[in-house]
Amino acid sequence: MFDSIKALSQLGPMMAKAKEMQSRLAEFQKTLPFIEASGSADGDSVRVTANGRLEIMAFEFEPDAPTADMARLADLCREATNAALRAVQAQVQMKMQESMGDIDMGAMRTMLGQG
């Protein structure tokens, strides 16, 4: 019973933290188009750039890219695209953690019975 009362006493501060987190997340989402990363394949003969919204921003082909072999070129494009998406996802995750900063999610997870 006392645990329930204690949990209820933490509800106000946790709601304030949740509101702060929601605000920070909304601000963070505005930065997603400006987070970019590239991935390449076959050395750098094929390079792809993606943004934080997981949108492909550019494809670049070096003169030595195998443009006559469409199957090989498709494989290289897929490989470079996947590398770019992995790289930008890692950047987004790192920047999100930075932007959330001092918000302690542990207490909120405990309150929700997930910790």
Question: Could you explain the architecture of this structure?
Answer:
The structure is a single chain. The protein has 115 residues and is an alpha+beta fold. It has a domain at 30-102: Nucleoid-associated protein YbaB-like domain (Ybab, Chain: A, 2-Layer Sandwich). 58% of the residues lie in helices and 16% in strands. Strands 1-2-3 form a three-stranded antiparallel sheet. Helix 2 packs antiparallel against helix 3 (70-100). The model has no long low-confidence stretch (mean pLDDT 85).
Q: How are the secondary structure elements laid out?
A:
Elements: H1 2-9, H2 11-31, E1 36-41, E2 46-51, E3 56-61, H3 70-100, H4 105-111
Helix pairs in contact: 2-3
Order of helices and strands: HHEEEHH
Give me the CATH superfamily of one domain. Nucleoid-associated protein YbaB-like domain
Cα-atom radius of gyration: 22 Å
CATH class of one domain: Alpha Beta
Low-pLDDT stretches are none
Spatial strand sequence of the major β-sheet: 1-2-3
- Overall form: rod-shaped
In short:
The chain is of the alpha+beta class and 115 residues long. The chain has helices at 2-9, 11-31, 70-100, 105-111; strands at 36-41, 46-51, 56-61.
Tags for this model:
58% helix, 115 residues, Ybab, Chain: A, 16% strand, alpha+beta
